[in-house]
Amino acid sequence: MFFASDNSGPALPEVLNALAKANTGYAMGYGADAEMAEVTRLIRALFEAPEAAVYLVATGTTANSLALATLCQPWETIFCSDVAHIHKDECNAPEFYTGGAKLTLATPKDADKLTVESLQAAIAAEGTRGVHGPQRGPVSITQVTEYGTIYTLNELQALCDVARSFDCPVHLDGARFANAMVALGCTPADMTWKAGVDAVSFGGTKNGCMGVEAVIFFDPRHAQEFELRRKRGGHLFSKHRYLSAQMLGYLENDLWIDAATKANTNAAQLAEGLCQIDGATFLHPPQANMLFVTLPRATHQRLFDAGASYHLWDGPLEGDPDEKITARLVCDWSLSKEQIDQFLDVAAG
Amino acid sequence: MFFASDNSGPALPEVLNALAKANTGYAMGYGADAEMAEVTRLIRALFEAPEAAVYLVATGTTANSLALATLCQPWETIFCSDVAHIHKDECNAPEFYTGGAKLTLATPKDADKLTVESLQAAIAAEGTRGVHGPQRGPVSITQVTEYGTIYTLNELQALCDVARSFDCPVHLDGARFANAMVALGCTPADMTWKAGVDAVSFGGTKNGCMGVEAVIFFDPRHAQEFELRRKRGGHLFSKHRYLSAQMLGYLENDLWIDAATKANTNAAQLAEGLCQIDGATFLHPPQANMLFVTLPRATHQRLFDAGASYHLWDGPLEGDPDEKITARLVCDWSLSKEQIDQFLDVAAG
Amino acid sequence: MFFASDNSGPALPEVLNALAKANTGYAMGYGADAEMAEVTRLIRALFEAPEAAVYLVATGTTANSLALATLCQPWETIFCSDVAHIHKDECNAPEFYTGGAKLTLATPKDADKLTVESLQAAIAAEGTRGVHGPQRGPVSITQVTEYGTIYTLNELQALCDVARSFDCPVHLDGARFANAMVALGCTPADMTWKAGVDAVSFGGTKNGCMGVEAVIFFDPRHAQEFELRRKRGGHLFSKHRYLSAQMLGYLENDLWIDAATKANTNAAQLAEGLCQIDGATFLHPPQANMLFVTLPRATHQRLFDAGASYHLWDGPLEGDPDEKITARLVCDWSLSKEQIDQFLDVAAG
Amino acid sequence: MFFASDNSGPALPEVLNALAKANTGYAMGYGADAEMAEVTRLIRALFEAPEAAVYLVATGTTANSLALATLCQPWETIFCSDVAHIHKDECNAPEFYTGGAKLTLATPKDADKLTVESLQAAIAAEGTRGVHGPQRGPVSITQVTEYGTIYTLNELQALCDVARSFDCPVHLDGARFANAMVALGCTPADMTWKAGVDAVSFGGTKNGCMGVEAVIFFDPRHAQEFELRRKRGGHLFSKHRYLSAQMLGYLENDLWIDAATKANTNAAQLAEGLCQIDGATFLHPPQANMLFVTLPRATHQRLFDAGASYHLWDGPLEGDPDEKITARLVCDWSLSKEQIDQFLDVAAG
């Protein structure tokens, strides 16, 4: 009953097989490996972007920070959600990599998503004081959001239009890119450059790799700067083939889509079951592979006692057992129906 | 005939097996995996340092930069060799991670190593102008050196004594730690804290891992700062078990020592063969797994034509065929006697 | 009718006289001038802080940024008001000088001041995610606030107590230190270390100097780091006596108190007059030398037409002439009663 | 007998008069003052550069660091002399402002100047290792050099040609710009853009101002970035008119040329006198306002005993009284013939 995170489960067997396959003979280092050439070809094809610059790094924080640093000057501010990973969970990595840029929080109060109005207002409020205030920088959109919800293609397009009207580039934090794409039933291009996105952190780690994320720039003029930033950040692997092989295994035969479909299906099954439980409510509508469900403390206590693993979102376990608090439940591809049923059984009491 | 680098060969099969073994069930992320606990236990035991803080990162540049940033203030200067990896091959990563520290080159002209005199003079010359000049910061020693030579334990001790006399901490760049240790026939402790080293980049990648280096601080008070720097640098792996497993496979059953022994033996065999070749000389005495051999251009041409792969050090292939130029030849554990003999045959002409 | 800023008027004649007096013979540079020794003596006496470390820089942004960088690690966040100068008006200087720290906005919605509750909540919400989120850093309090209001001594003490309970140091942005102190009728010590403040930006520029601010640390252990940060920021003046002389002229004979008293009195006279004007209201109660007054657009138009100079706060001049918008009116020591009366006459219509 | 530095003497009376003259009425802040408009006009005319972007800052370290940061990426290296102020005397300010660029020392051993050969070799040696090494960045030339010598116009042109051949921009550290120009008998344009210089730190402080330096970019496309860097560095003065007024007083009526002429003449008189002293030799030929003279320790002792003030360059005062050590003697405009004669009398013994 492991719902703590989609980075806690095992890697997909096919990814490990790809690693083993790559482990033969001598290979050029630092990204000049044959596997990387194939990864680039595949990603360009998938994204219908034959000119795109494609890079691999090992963590999501790195993908986000390097992509943003490439799009952002140190005197600018990045517009993002108040629960964005780049704001809450990267220990100031974007500030570090950009050389001291700021983050401006642009979500409406208690909302899970940026809105056209909130983003428009946030950008308009900056950049009005000459050199005194921070200048307008990139917009960073998280898809799937940190609340497990998904921007529709129309919403994405509208946010990108706002950004474009201020000449702000757009970054998409796609740590759960595949989960969103599967949920929307769209193509990679639909969810990125066709909507107006300039750079993508295309996650592999949470969806079954060991540790690999692609960074994709649709305008290849960003390539050289990114390469230098990657190197001086220590993120250029000498034995790069082991990053490439993971991504290759992940992309081949639609494995990435299958894994995300399983994870989303698992979450849907879990959500459906929770709906049957008396008094359970959702903080935000479940749309991908992550649920925020509100249950009485006593229920959480019962689940933890039974060995379930997940994070409480808005309160400690100690307190009034009848009071309701919210939990975050994340499903990955590896969960079995049995685990989910067991969880629901315990929750039902 | 692949002598280009010790990061071009395959990873040790045992390392991949360890990965596969770790790939079962759910594991806590971010370094809280069971494998990491075992790695820490093993490294503390190997280094006879029960209090040491031990961390894993994926690249040598990261290990060096994070270790140095933890030991160095932005207004200080780091003393190192003029061919140190941190100076020549990290695209200013140490400057980036330290927030703008300087590097002071402290080797005698054309020397492969720092000497007591050169280091003493370099440190003494800094820190004499109050707040105007850079302040004295850490000393970074590379073992095996970038010229393939090795500091004796007495030399290490003497350099650390110089550093200590100025209150400068000492970092050891041990990208080829195992090769040096095997060549010296000493213990990990001998080559580090017993000589006066404060922090070590303990390489795994060049000696048969896919991508993992340990950073070891003998004074655990550096732990918290390092952990925050690692996180904000994007170097904390969510699925950390895949770093741990590599290092575990590498350390268990003395695999790391065996691999380095093979690499050094390969290099010795190659050096011995080269000595028989008319006119071949060594720029620096071969001591570990890396040779700098001087041969006529025509010989290099013949080798390249036969498919050998390695780097020329001090001149282009084009030019007077009789003129001698120097090549860097690196051996890893995976080279076969046949490959070496074939190389020597071609070289002999 | 110049109410645009307290940095637009002339410098106090006594400050220029002090400059001229200092301009004789040779003087040691870089802060070793005799005038600086006297400044240090005076400030320590005024603040009843015989051990305090005292430095001079030329701008408020510098004073704030260097003080905060000395108190803050790059992985921390600074707690401040959402209209703090360090957040809105320094083009990311605190982010730059700290090496990438974050700023967390901790004021209640639409409030002019931090409150115990809002600060407590903001600090408590950070530092709960291990190495993932930013760590808790300094609290920066602006006195006089950017809305012209003043924290009482009790309020200051209570905020510092909150900070102390989380081990967060406290910085006071006292660009208008004298105006606040005069309004409170307290001593420099009351408003700083006795309340729990660790470091002060003690403004001179806005209150009649040409360009000088003191930075005061009550704990002298911060001295060396500050001195190195000042130098590498380019803020250590070679001919330092010209900074010292300004501050000396400013402090001698209570000139700084007289100037602030005049500025506050001017603002009080202006506020009193504005109260008589039909429909004029104050966004925040006038307490020092800065007013936020709400008037119909038509009134502003009349004032601008008559040559008044000041900033509109929340709307453009164009629009419905009857609609009310807010202006910021700042008084310095140099304004005459005639100018104020003239302004009021025009405003009255 | 004050020969310690050209930042120890008083400011020119005309500069103080200009300050007093500017101290009337209200003025726009942050560089929008009328005096600055006049400074820009004058500097553009003097440099025959009607499009140049012109800025004022208060210190030489600031001028150099901001100019270089505008010309340099964080992953580049700056080519300079091994005694350049930016390398030895700015506590890593260039590294700080550039976000972690490196400095490559490019002077021949023991030389006072960069040579075409040494610069060519230094630049050629960088930028050859792809993303691994630092990339080629700006060349910074110091005129007058830190050894008191002067690049001829031909030498400047030749160095700029080398830089240009590698697409490296050129910065001139002109802390003693006027002294060099007077010595060469050339125009400001001759010594800058006509030779190939892109950006100049045009010193005022050492030549009689209180604290002001101009930064001049001949290509105005650098303007916006410089303005943002200046602001976030804390170097944009709110009461900017007091920087402008200094520079205005300095430039008007050729005051700056007169002051430099006096300083150089004083140094020439001092050098001539020293030539008469038995055993006195010059480390480098005296060419501007700074001498490096070698004298027996006993002579230095006699001079210090008589109250002379200057820096010893290469040894402590303690030691063999007959051994010769070198002193740096700097002359400013304010020295009198009497002081120089008195110094020579004591030196003669």
Describe this entry's structure for a reader.
4 copies of one chain form a homotetramer. By secondary structure, chain A is of the alpha/beta class. The first copy, chain A, has 2 domains: 13-255, Aspartate Aminotransferase, domain 2; 260-348, Aspartate Aminotransferase, domain 1 (Alpha-Beta Complex), CATH 3.90.1150.10. The first copy, chain A, has 13 helices and 11 strands. In chain A, strands 1-7-6-5-4-2-3 form a 7-stranded mixed β-sheet, with helices on both faces. A 4-stranded antiparallel β-sheet of chain A has the order 8-9-11-10. Chains in contact: A-B, A-C, A-D, B-C, B-D, C-D. Chains A and B meet through helix 1, helix 3, helix 5 and helix 9 of A and helix 1, helix 3, helix 5 and helix 9 of B. Chains A, B, C, D: One of its GO terms (molecular function) is lyase activity. Chains A, B, C, D: Its cofactor is pyridoxal 5'-phosphate. Chains A, B, C, D: Residues 3-293 form the Aromatic amino acid beta-eliminating lyase/threonine aldolase domain.
In the CATH scheme, the class of the largest domain in chain A would be Alpha Beta
What is the H/E string of chain A?
Answer: HHEHEHHEHEHEHEEHHHEEHEEH
Mean of all residue-level pLDDT scores of chain A = 97
Q: Which range does the strand content of chain A fall in?
A: 15-25%
Cα gyration radius of chain A (Å): 21 Å
Number of strands of chain A: 11
Architecture per CATH nomenclature, i.e. the level-2 architecture of the largest domain in chain A: 3-Layer(aba) Sandwich
Major beta sheet summary of chain A: 7 strands, mixed
Low-confidence stretches of chain A: none
For the record, what is the CATH homologous superfamily label of the largest domain in chain A?
Type I PLP-dependent aspartate aminotransferase-like (Major domain)
Give the termini separation of chain A. Answer: 16 Å
Main-sheet strand order of chain A equals 1-7-6-5-4-2-3
Family (chains A, B, C, D): Belongs to the threonine aldolase family.
Protein name (chains A, B, C, D): Low specificity L-threonine aldolase
Keywords (chains A, B, C, D): Lyase, Pyridoxal phosphate
Subunit structure (chains A, B, C, D): Homotetramer.
